[in-house]
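Researcher: Quick one. two chains, 829 residues in total.
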Amino acid sequence: MSTPGKELVRLSNISKTFPGVRALNGVSMTVRAGEIHALVGENGAGKSTLIKVLTGAHMADPGGEIFIEGQKTDIHNPAAALTLGIGAVYQDVMMAPHLSVGENLFLGKLPRKGPIVDWPRVHQETREALAQIGVDIDPSVLLKDLPIAKQEMVAIGKIVHENAKVIIFDEPTALLTNEEVEQLFALIHRLKEAGCGIIYISHRLEEIFRICDTVTVLKDGQLVATLPTSELDEERLISLMVGRKLEEMYSIDRQQPGPVVLEVRNLHRDGVFRDISFQVRQGEIFGMYGLVGSGRSEVMRAITGADPLTGGEVFIDGKQVNIKNPKQSIQQGMAFLTEDRKRYGLALNMSVNFNVNMASYDAISNRGVVSLSKEAGRANHYVDEINIKTPSIKQQARNLSGGNQQKVVIGRWLACNSKLFIFDEPTIGVDVGAKVEIYRLFEELLKNGAAIIVISSYLPEVMGLSDRIAVMSEGRIIDEVPRADFYVNGVMDEERLVRLASGLTA
Amino acid sequence: MENRTLGKPGKKSLSTVMMLAVLLLAMFIVLTLLTDKFLTVNNIQNLLRQTAIYGVIAIGMTFVIMSGGIDLSVGAVVGLSGVLSAMFMSTSERTGGMGLPVWLAIIAAVAISSLVGVINGAIIFDGKVPPFIATLGIQTAVRGLIMLITNAQMISGIPKDFAGFSRQTFLAFPTLGWVWVAFIVVAAIVIKFTTFGRNIFAVGSNTEAARLSGISIRKTTYSVYVVSALMCAVAGVLMTARLGNGVPTGGIGYETDAIAAAVIGGASLNGAEGSIIGTVLGSLIMATLRNGGNLLGINSFILEITIGLLIVFAVLMDKRRKK
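Model:
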């Protein structure tokens, strides 16, 4: 750990009240040069609001003060924040995917020679700015043609080019592969060594322990603690965030596995996966682990009819089935809870009522006429049963938290009487408290005779939950590991699975 | 992290409808005060006859827009159905009349014109062509087809009873208006109470989520474009009755009015928003503006400017309320 550098930003006694809600209450935080400072807390703890106050998107309530390098300052808008050296990396909102890398760096202020854009200068300066952060990207490439990690690096380059001293990362690794995460971390380290102050927000605690020097924990809009990372471990950090213990999270009441519910033999899809065979039994959780791009989600999409299969056999309850579209898989009792809820799962601008019933209107209608009372009855039933926190079933899905959105989707599949639940990254974007609730729901599902498949790239989760794990790499199942082999001398052996997933033999 | 509570969707569409209803009422009051020609049985009947035809089209357009699509071929389908029905029933051989019984002529014209919806659905769903482009192309093609089969000639020789139908009233309400009301009721029921209505919202809100929930995107897409074409086909028949001739240029530009009525009525081109009653009010507001403006002797160009601004204003208000 380096010695603390000079103070770059000090937030003092920041409160922020929205109509009816106090989002922040007297929070203080200091970021120093050469420091990577984690900001953690559950969804709703106030992290984003604090960042918005710092970047000028929100004004703090009177009484709160912001000091930049010791100087008391008011920040009225994001542009002002940037001139003061504070920039946030939000690649999706500050970049134009159809423009070139260079244009993105100079967005809104392209240098000109007379009326003509000075392209040589754009490219030259872009190359320099990117070289400064140790990145080599052709300035004339269109942003959308770059992998997401590179796009993120361009976003960082843009902020550094605008002389940001304090750089804010909000869940920067959410969309990156493991190798890309490494590249990003290396870049963040270079920024740190160059004397920048970094604010790092992430749900992934292991990242915080890897790269952050200091952690500030928020809960319900209040400051819980600011501590050096060296004085914390994962368990203590979680208990600061939620007041719960880590091992409780994944401990699930296991059931005696029953008959085979799903069996697949030699599934094949050209260029995507091949030779996929496995069985899933009633009452068990079957894990699928692999790196992004290993084909794990694609296998599940093909089994549930969302994508075509080129070969192989699928058996449900011992009977061979030929599933050609999602509707048929639903009729067979399969529920597929997709990875990106917002894009593939929810009708965001529709009500909770609609989203819960969406896959089963046929069951509550007579000759195409929907029974409105049954519709509302079912929605209310699942809101109560799985504890979806919403003011009413008429609330739009977009206004719910990530955890409650996931519960709405679970409710939808419960309403279909599903018996095999396939969860693709079930807890991404879900805060720790709601994670626990979702795992409790897994327990309930198992108790009621369902089988569960969990796809996750987060090892502690998939290992904590699964009875068996199939590890995929490059479109094939490399090995299937039973729960008994997860532990070596009582300690979870993550390394073995990582090696398998990377295509190495264990 | 934002804890704002947005209005419930049910409440929101109600307030759009309320606002429109108040606006329409205000227009009626102002026009009644300004001119004694407005609130007369004759004029109101006339207003309803004018509104009925594109009011029917706007209903079909609302189905399409709520599913996240758009149908620019509506005016052309109105024209096609108009000339086909005229041709089938006309007794004037000189203009290509076939002299079929009126009921058969209507059914045949509506059935054939509705096929345009199937073609739209095929190009959009199976061909994956964006609806805007697909229906723009079909609009042009159908217009050409109309000119080809009519030789760009008006079709006369329409049976008197049929033409007379459009001028009749039932319970002091024009027959054309009754046809419109019937479609309003049926459409509102379909939207609110049927699985087809739910599927439209699902597809309009999130197509992939709808597909993974077992909803047939193909069926829903084809259906909304067929509903739209069917409405236009009916409107085309009504138009022929009203004009007493098959007019090859009939229905030109109707897509603009239909889209405008739906949008003023609260439909969003992003899909999954809008209501039949909103579209009905949107249609009435536009028709009342035109009718009242004519009675007051306001320059019709100025009226068009007003209607154009009204469309933009309606969407602006909607956006503001949602903020």
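The interface with chain A takes residues 1-6, 8-11, 193-199, 201-202, 205-206, 208-216, 272-273 of chain B (CB under 8 Å).
Researcher: Thanks, that's what I needed.
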